[in-house]
Amino acid sequence: MGFERDEEFAKEVENYFGEYVSTFRSKSNQVRADLFKEGDGLVAHVSFAQGFTSGSVDDPYLTELKAFADEKGLGSNFRLLMSGS
Predict the structure, then answer these.
(1) What residue ranges in 1-85 does DSSP mark as E strands?
(2) Per-residue pLDDT in tens (0 to 9) along the chain, 85 residues
């Protein structure tokens, strides 16, 4: 899976959340993160597939999200907003 920019999604959300950068989907689609630039940082709005929580997913995602933020030069001010439990 990985990172992919969704232009239609960008049009829908940029007025509410700021500059949309990309969407991350984990290898088994257990985790989705929509990434937005906020000032000199990056905010990942993380959600989990039905039946999963932050403590039950098997797919790696935190390392990939942080690496992406670092690649964009936004890693020093990287935040996660977690949906669900």
Answers:
(1) 2-4, 19-25, 31-38, 41-48, 78-82
(2) 699 999 999 999 988 888 999 999 999 999 999 999 998 999 999 999 999 998 899 999 999 999 999 999 999 999 999 986 5
> What amino acid is encoded at 44 in this protein?
A
* Cα distance between residue 17 and residue 43, in whole Å: 9
Domain boundaries, the chain: 2-82
**Do 9 and 34 touch, CB atoms closer than 8 A?**
yes
User: For residue 65, what are the contacts with CB-CB under 8 A and spacing of at least 6?
Assistant: 24, 33, 35, 44, 46, 78, 80
